[in-house]
Write a structure and sequence with these properties.
The structure is a single chain. 11% of the residues lie in helices and 27% in strands. The chain is mainly beta and 253 residues long. It has one domain (50-245). The strands form 2 sheets. The chain has a 6-stranded antiparallel β-sheet with strand order 2-1-3-8-5-6, with no helix packed on it. It is elongated. The termini are far apart.
Length: 253
């Protein structure tokens, strides 16, 4: 008996299916490789300025600060963020011939540009004593005082005998002592004006180095030749230190 055409077709299809199954079930070995990178991260850096201060009054600057302190406040402190309790200057009985010096230390965790802004918030006569009215005819308690225009300030980079800041290996840096032949003067002696800006970059485009304490000396004095016109006069000011990142920032502030 012969096999009809339909049966032949079915047998052929069955053979193809068996062959395909054998192919699918077979194991093939091709060269391969895989590389994986995990934990890819972006974290923003930080720029948090810390400030400390050592204040000296009417004596050579040394390791023993002696400035008067405000009630519930400080004129000398360790590195920290500044608040209302921190006063660089707090003198309530200044007389001609008085002088003082503050060594201000600044630290940031990334390279940064630095500037300081002075905002004079009060400059008044306060009252008019008898001697003051003689020296200043027409003195009025609500008038501008004369103390601000007679206080003299000098600012220098307290870097010691070696240029830059080396840390503990240079004992002469941050020592409160102005050695003019080694330590650059940033602000020559003169009076302070309201709105004045002291910019560190003005000195050879200097900036703060990451994790490296930078020290600045701020000296003041009321010359002996100043007379009764400053009696009872008062000055108050805000000092604000500002920093901006150094990297990718050629034109700060």
């Amino acid at each position: 008996m012969g096999i009809n055409i339909n049966t032949k077709i079915l047998l052929s299809l069955a053979s193809i299916a068996v062959a395909a199954a054998l192919v699918v079930g077979a194991t093939f070995a091709f060269f391969s490789d895989s590389e994986t990178s995990t934990g890819n991260t972006f974290t923003a850096g930080t720029l948090d300025l810390k400030v400390d201060n050592t204040c000296h009054y009417n004596e050579p600057a040394d390791d023993t600060p002696n400035c008067p302190t405000p009630p519930e406040g400080f004129t000398t402190w360790d590195s920290t963020d500044l608040g209302v309790a921190h006063k660089f200057f707090y003198f309530t009985d200044v007389k001609p011939g008085d002088y003082g010096e503050d060594t201000v230390s600044l630290t940031v965790e990334n390279d940064a540009w630095l500037r300081m802004l002075i905002d004079v918030t009060a400059d008044t006569d306060n009252s008019c004593t008898g001697p003051e009215t003689v020296a200043e005819p027409g003195c009025g308690a609500n008038d501008d005082g004369e103390l601000l225009e007679n206080l003299l300030f000098t600012v220098w980079l307290d870097q010691g005998v070696t240029p830059g800041f080396q840390g503990p290996q240079d004992l002469s840096e941050c020592d409160n002592d102005f050695v003019e032949q080694f330590e650059p003067t940033l602000i020559s002696e003169g009076t302070v004006q309201d709105g004045e800006i002291w910019n560190l970059a003005d000195f050879d485009e200097a900036y703060l180095l990451a994790e490296q304490k930078a020290c600045f000396g701020i000296a003041w004095r009321l010359p002996e030749e100043v007379g009764n016109e400053v009696q009872s006069d008062g000055v108050e000011a805000t000092m604000e230190f500002q920093v901006e990142q150094y990297r990718n920032n050629p034109s700060p502030f």
